Amino acid sequence: MKNNFLILLFSLISTGIYSQEYVWSVYNIKVDRVNAGQVVSAMDNYLSKPGNLVDGVTVSLFEIMFASDDNEATHVIAFTGNPDAMNAMYSAGQNDEWQVMMSTFDQLTESEGSGAGRSIHTFNTDAEGPIHHILQLKVEEPDKYENAFKKMWTNVKPDNRITLGQFVSGRKDGMSHYILVSRDDFKDLVTQREWNAKERAAWQTYRKERGDVEIVSTMTRALVKQWK
Amino acid sequence: MIKKIKLSILFLSISFYSIAQNAWSVYEWKVQPQDVSTVFNICNDYLSQQGNVTEGTTVALYEVMFAGDGFEATHTLNIYGDMESMNRAYSNEQDSDWFLFIEKLNQFIDPVASLAGRALKAYNEDDDSDPIHQLWIMNVSESDKFVDGWTNFRDKYPPNNFIELGTIVSGREDGMTHYILSAQKDFKDLVDGSNWSDAESVAWAKFRKERGQTEMVRSFARRLIKKWN
């Protein structure tokens, strides 16, 4: 009986950990900032109607705040959800309302690439801010890196939500993984956390154990609107 | 009494440290030669109006003087100030004048990149009289080691001009992590070597040896066109 209870408890905890993880797809678009309002309206008209947004999928429109010179996009449309919900979305047929939205997009936006991937370890999901700072990484030894990341943020509670994830499709410049950190505002973005001795030691261990890694680029995006 | 002095010293140290915690953002643009004066006028018309520059921040338009191959920008628009003011600037709602400003600008600029970061340590930061900025953009492997070493060196041999060591937070590429900015009065000042004493040269060599692995990603120079605050 005790064993069964422990198994049940373990299973619930495992599900709880897993449920934080998600798969995603992103569409990078270039839109004249004065037309951004029309893009929001077109998305709002489509996504606010019952049945047009697949249950379990969140759609977010972000504006790019800062990005390096190889990034042409001004906005990002991100779809996130569990694998089944995302699969249902990509298997669903497209209706007339979809065509209307896409027609607006054709007139106002330029495509600047797309990608898909999955999260691996997410911590502190409750502390989600409207700004996403993303470090795009080239990781030489994924297992080593993922274990070191998990150990680091299990020992040290992050201030905000932090996710390590992997690019599957749409990769370039050698990038394999990403770290997404949510931030509350500009000050939170550029201010460094004050580390105590234990946290500094954990950081040094993480750096030592993670294997070779290169930051390919960093970028920041701010949430414009979200539908779920 | 001694305690009060110690507290004052601590307070002053904290205040000085806080001053160095300025934040900045930079928008890099490519502007065609025939459009430079138009871009300047658009910036000047908008930024000269009261209330369009957040109090505590400065907006500065620079032209790029020298840069290596691959650096596409011809101009940069820099926004900088103390952390709270910068935060306010990025928290403000944007009005129709701002949209009009952006709409006008977009006809004459080609956005290249945008970055944000913060200063870690600065000397003579209140002296902004020198119009030329030389920047060294680096890939620093061991930040604490580098910052401590550089600060020790500069504390011992304080510069006469405005010099700042900082870190790039967003918009990074090619491994860049940190920068050193040195303000110069003119071209001669820019290209003249430093007349260091023997002791200073020895201290610099020591810093280079002890700073950890560091790679120079790029260096470039920019010249102030106008600033608004």
- Unreliable runs of chain B: 1-20
**CATH fold-level assignment of chain B:** Alpha-Beta Plaits
State the order of secondary-structure elements of chain B, H for helix, E for strand.
HEHEEHHEEHEEHHE
**Percentage of β-strand residues of chain A:** 35-45%
Structural class of chain A: alpha+beta
Describe what you observe in this structure:
- The complex is a heterodimer of chains A (228) and B (229).
- Chain A has 228 residues and is of the alpha+beta class.
- Chain A has a single domain, classed as Alpha-Beta Plaits (2-Layer Sandwich), CATH 3.30.70.100.
- Chain A is built from seven helices and eight strands.
- Chain A has an eight-stranded antiparallel beta barrel, surrounded by four helices.
- Chain A starts with a helix and ends with a strand.
- Residues 1-18 of chain A have low confidence and may be disordered.
- Chain B is built from seven helices and eight strands.
- Chain B starts with a helix and ends with a strand.
- Chain B is of the alpha+beta class and 229 residues long.
- The longest helix of chain B has 19 residues, at 2-20.
- Helices cover 36% and strands 35% of the residues of chain B.
- The model of chain B is unreliable at 1-20 (pLDDT under 50).
- Chain B has an eight-stranded antiparallel barrel, surrounded by four helices.
- The interface between A and B is medium-sized, with 26 and 33 residues.
